[in-house]
Amino acid sequence: MSKKVLAVDDSQTMREMVAFALRQAGYDVLLAEDGQKALGVLGSSPVDCVITDLNMPQMDGIGLIQALRAHPTHRGTPILMLTTESDDQKKQAGKAAGATGWLVKPFNPEKLLDVVRRVSG
Amino acid sequence: MTDTPFDQFRRTFFEECADLLTMAEGELRGLDLNAPNSESLHAIFRAVHSIKGGAGAFGFDRLVAFAHGFESTLDALRDHRLRLDRDHHDLIMRAFDVLADLVQDAHGESPMQGGSEQDIADALTRWRGDTASPAPLSASPAAHEKNSGGGCYLIRFTPNTQMLAKANEPLLILRELKRLGQATITVDLSRLPGLCEMSSQESYLSWTIELHTAHDLDRVRETFEFVLDDCELSITEHDTRKTEAPAAEGTEAPRGQTSAASPTSMRVDIDKVDRLVNMVGEIVITQAMLSQQIAHMQIDKHQELMTGIEQMAWHTRELQESVMAIRAQPVRSVFQRMPRLVRELSFALGKEVRLVTEGENTEVDKTVIEQLSDPLTHLIRNSVDHGIETPDQREVAEKPRIGTITLSAAHRHGRIVIAVDDDGAGLNLERIRARAIERGLIDAQADLDQEAILNLIFLPGFSTAAAVTNISGRGVGMDVVKRNVQAMGGRVTVESRPGQGARFTLSLPLTLAVLDGMLVRAGGERYVIPLAGIIESICPAPGMVAKLVGCGDVLHIRGEYVRLIPLHTAFNLHDDAQTNGLVVLVEAEGGRRAGFIVDEIIGQQQVVIKSMETNYTHIPGISAATILGDGRVALILDISGLMDMRMMNPSSSFAPDTTAYPLSSDCLPS
């Protein structure tokens, strides 16, 4: 069975690119525009990895990470943050909130797949 | 078509940029300087952030560099490290202008000069108060320094509980190491307690790995990139020792939730919608054909068929309206480009102008919106340049120094009416008249009323600017505006109040795809008159028609004289058919009226508009064509155009022989 990844980003461009790269590699991809919607999309069905942007309306990436780490089903799910180089503080905050790893924007598809594999096998 | 996924992403990116810029500019304009709404500031920040993120992915370095500095400033602003005032609000506006230009530039449209970009970037940096904020130019995270060419590494790795809590799996890291080369892994079980004392969330194991690899130290360390803070790690290479000590974790509090209403919507390729619109158009034609067929059948025999077709007509209509609603968009996207225009123009001209917009949510078809930009830009330009006076002149005229231009949109009679209103000096009738005479557009002796004089500005080759200014008057005049608007089936009118201002009004159809029309017959041909322009149909009694010198026949109705235009002579048709002499009274924008003489009124019908310009060429008096239920083509009349044809040259547009139709010979005094 193919692995399932949830990608959360308020930018449609980013969502499409992440989804395309992952689908090409055979992943099942779920998409959400912000943290709040991500929680709705996930519900209580487990995924193999969550990729989330940090700056988003409604619930930002940090909020989502905290919510997932407190969730009975998703507390052990690997979470990758999408960050930019200038986001160092945010990255630290995300890490403190329980993020598994990060992916620095801009990234290429190989890098994305590489990192997803590193955290979710 | 060679449409790679990358092209698709690019397209999405630029669409998204346009949306974000529009949204951000709207938020920015709505910002109360004394108490800026923090949600708005967050939204503005996110817009720039998203643009930067996407731009990075496509390698638009110049855009990334500018967005980066801009973003830092906005970040400081939303964290209250900077305070917003009038000047800086202006700076941010201009930064958005530059950002929009850079997006265009990246899109490959209108290459941009570097001057203002650097100025604005510097101004943003100065405001931020720091000097160094190097942009992440050519950020390529995969770049590694290939200084050492691999070898043998001895790695000691002891995860702590934190690491496991963050879902970092030691097994995956070990597996990753094995991908780099040959690894001999030894696990240390010495800390493992007895089963009863064991906690499922605690970390008890540590590993020693001997790795033979062709990769360098950086690559090996990268494997541990995510866990450096949450484990004890030492990597020994040859005789160089590198020990990674746990570092303090960042303690920045997570940002609270921000909320912004995000409507549920989806993005659909416009081509798909167009195909849908086309198909619905075909259904409308087919439905019209069926309706026409059953009109000749006996009702009692085919009761169910009749009911079915009636129902289908009803559903077709609803289907069509729903499809049109998909294409409808608020005019906001066009309106929001105007503040910048006003800002730049008034700055260049040393004027002070405030732009007020109303009815931004008024919806109109996407095609109309796309074609609206140019005429509107020209009208606004015109108002700032010619309409609004300089602050000093205004003071003399006892008006506020700041001029106001009001841009408004509203639905009226199934059309959209867009008005550009200014409180400037109004149009100078004397100067217009003088210029028209000078240009040979009218005769020096011509006796024109105010409306006729105002309408002179729409003639080709007319320009009132005393000197050709930088802004307008570069040969592109009101005639182009009028032509563009007419091409859409719209009208432009002007009103002027000397000393108080002027008002330009555009009236446009809501859609360029369908039209409610009245099907008539004249000279053996069928024509469609737009229903919106029809006032009434009459069968004039003898004595209602009179002949006016230089005007042809006129109809006297309710104390008013209305010019008569026989359609069959307007289009030079041989008129062998029996003429009933019916008059359809029509009204153009601006209230001008005329009576079209037709032979028969066939009935009201919704028609699918097929452009003449696209498929053939422009014909005076005709706005478009349509296909009728029987598969034949009918021309859609351009009411205003027909009146103009008549007015411009009454003697040659129509056959001089007024007895060509029985109506006049019956009623005219001999």
Entry summary:
Chain A has 121 residues and is an alpha/beta fold.
Keyphrases for this structure?
heterodimer; A: 121 residues; alpha/beta; five-stranded parallel beta sheet; globular; B: 670 residues; alpha+beta; six-stranded mixed beta sheet; 23% strand
Q: Report the span from N to C terminus of chain B.
A: 69 Å
**Residue share in helices of chain A?**
40-55%
- Please estimate the helix content of chain B: 40-55%
Q: Using the alpha-carbon principal axes, give the shape of chain A.
A: globular
Please report the number of helical segments of chain B: 22
Q: Could you tell me the strand content of chain B as a percent range?
A: 15-25%
Low-confidence stretches of chain B: 131-148, 239-263, 465-475, 648-670
**Secondary-structure class of chain A:** alpha/beta
Lateral strand order in the biggest sheet of chain A: 2-1-3-4-5
Largest sheet of chain B: 6 strands, mixed
Rg from alpha-carbon coordinates of chain A: 13 Å
Shape by Cα distribution of chain B = elongated
Determine Rg of chain B (CA atoms, Å): 36 Å
Integer average pLDDT of chain A: 88
- Major beta-sheet overview of chain A: 5 strands, parallel
